[in-house]
Design a protein that fits this description.
Blueprint: E1 4-9, H1 17-23, H2 28-34, E2 41-45, H3 55-79, E3 89-95, H4 97-111, E4 116-122, E5 136-137, E6 141-149, E7 165-166, E8 171-177, H5 181-184, E9 197-201, H6 208-213, H7 216-224, E10 226-232, H8 233-256
Parallel strand pairs: 1-2, 1-3, 3-4, 4-6, 5-7, 6-8
Antiparallel strand pairs: 9-10
């Protein structure tokens, strides 16, 4: 087995861990972190709650874990090359605000002079990290693949995106998909409005019940904040599948490349 390390931060969701786990059980960050063979170590973090104040902390945790594990495996590679024949490599993956968190983690790794072999971003959004540097992928990243929602979907238009530029010689590849922000992370909406188009309720919640789980005034506000998209259910599910097929293929190519 290689000494590859993968660290992921998922998207914004309800504060209840139980509700979050149900809403994000099939997320792409989960699938990459927990269901991909060949990694010696993986570390998955749920995403922040609606206010997003935890995003900076998520970035710090991702950095601390990646740096600590990378340091240990680098030492083992140097001291026991027969058992650890290949140097460790770091992979980072994030969805929505979790994407901004792992970009920030990559900058912290750069400051520690640690490379990032691969970064897989699912519609990365910066609504919490003050530093504008997360708009650009740092040059210690070798490969960065970014799936973003198409403008034609009219989904979460106020969110914008971060991480759509790359510094230095980063191999950056981006593709847009006609589906909602939820489907971009593997968490599609389950129903459409009467006109056939999906109506997004609240930020980071997949159902009205989950929105109520946020509690208080925030939950009530989110429930009544309905945004119509230009996405029908068939497009939503096809978009979700296309995002995963595109990202997973590129991820495996980057993982196989040791140059």
């Amino acid at each position: 087995m290689s000494s590859d390390i993968i660290v992921g931060v998922d998207g914004t969701g309800p504060s209840s861990d139980d509700t979050y786990a149900k809403d994000f059980k099939d997320s792409f960050v989960q699938k990459l972190c927990r269901n991909t063979p060949g990694f010696r170590v993986h570390d998955y973090h749920r995403g922040p709650t609606t206010h997003g104040l935890e995003t900076v902390g998520k970035a710090r945790h991702a950095y601390d874990f990646a740096k600590g594990t990378y340091t240990i495996f680098s030492k083992l590679h140097a001291e026991k090359p027969k058992l650890f024949p290949k140097p460790p490599r770091i992979f980072l993956t994030g969805y929505s605000r979790g994407g901004a968190a792992v970009i920030e983690a990559a900058y912290k790794l750069k400051e520690a002079k640690i490379p990032v072999h691969g970064m897989m971003l699912f519609d990365a959004v910066d609504r919490s990290i003050v530093d504008d540097r997360v708009n650009t992928i740092p040059d210690n990243v070798k490969y960065c693949f970014h799936a973003v929602r198409a403008d034609s979907a009219e989904s979460r238009e106020i969110f914008g995106n971060c991480g759509r530029k790359a510094a230095g010689k980063v191999f950056y590849l981006e593709r847009s998909f006609h589906c909602t922000h939820g489907a971009m992370g593997g968490c599609p909406w389950k129903e459409a409005g009467e006109d056939g188009y999906i109506e997004e309720v609240g930020a980071g919640f997949k159902t009205k019940a989950a929105t109520f789980a946020a509690g208080g005034v925030l939950g009530l506000y989110a429930l009544h904040k309905i945004d119509k998209t230009k996405v029908k259910m068939k497009q939503e599910l096809e978009g979700r599948d296309a995002v995963w097929a595109w990202m997973h293929k590129l991820f495996l190519v980057a993982k196989a490349n040791y140059k």
